[in-house]
From TrEMBL, chain A:
Provenance organism: Halostagnicola kamekurae
Gene3D superfamilies in UniProt: Fumarate reductase/succinate dehydrogenase, transmembrane subunit
Cellular localisation: Membrane
Name under which the protein is recorded: Succinate dehydrogenase subunit D
SUPFAM superfamilies (alphabetical): Fumarate reductase respiratory complex transmembrane subunits
Amino acid sequence: MAERYSSFTPGGTGWLLQRITAAFLVVVLAFHFFQLHFVTHAAEVTFAGTQARMENPGYFLAMVLFLITAAFHGVNGIYNALVNQGLSGTPKKVVLAILTLSGLALVAQGIYVAIVMAGGSIS
Amino acid sequence: MSQSYNRGLIEDFGRWKEFSAGMWAWIFHKFTGWMLIGYLFTHIAVLSTAIGAANGQMMMVGGEEVNVFTGTIQGLEGLFIVRVLEVGLLAVAVFHILNGVRLLMVDLGIGLESQDKSFYASLILTGAITVASVPTFLSGVGF
């Protein structure tokens, strides 16, 4: 059996990425909650207000990165929790496929919505 | 000189009476994680009404015609139960953040000997932030 000289097993990469996305999410999630509950109250959110925020390139980019990292962190977290719980063999592969597709669909839909909010159109 | 011993299935929730602080932190982190990813899917679904709004779809809210995005969000925010659920979401998110920071420190080997104390600190701080946020979250529907 060939020896591996990396500290990271394939599972270890998932572990590292989970920590990196966590560090990013701590900051952006706190900002998001503060922005949309304390600066602008959620009950006062309007389409016009959302458009104004999303037309700012920095805000738009932050929200899209927020979506991608949150979707990855969540899906990767669920996958690892299930593997930790004893998931293996074919069910493990099926779960991984379903979670990957769900995550990609979520990111695709979210980016589409973000572009629409920023005044762009796809169709 | 390493010894191995059978510690049973750690992930056996039936052993909850044996759980220590670290185990509860692990359980709560999983539980709040499941809730947050579930919410993310719901959140994007609600925000998708922006597509309709951009195409000029309107709806009635309180006898007033507004675009479907504004109407959906303000309709939801007008419900007391939604506000209560939002306070719950804040509690879940704050705990996940604070315990996540605790986990990052554990991973880096910082303060390992007080990992149980930092779990209790996460719980207390979550409670305090949640209680302090109640007036803001319930404004207009009871406060």
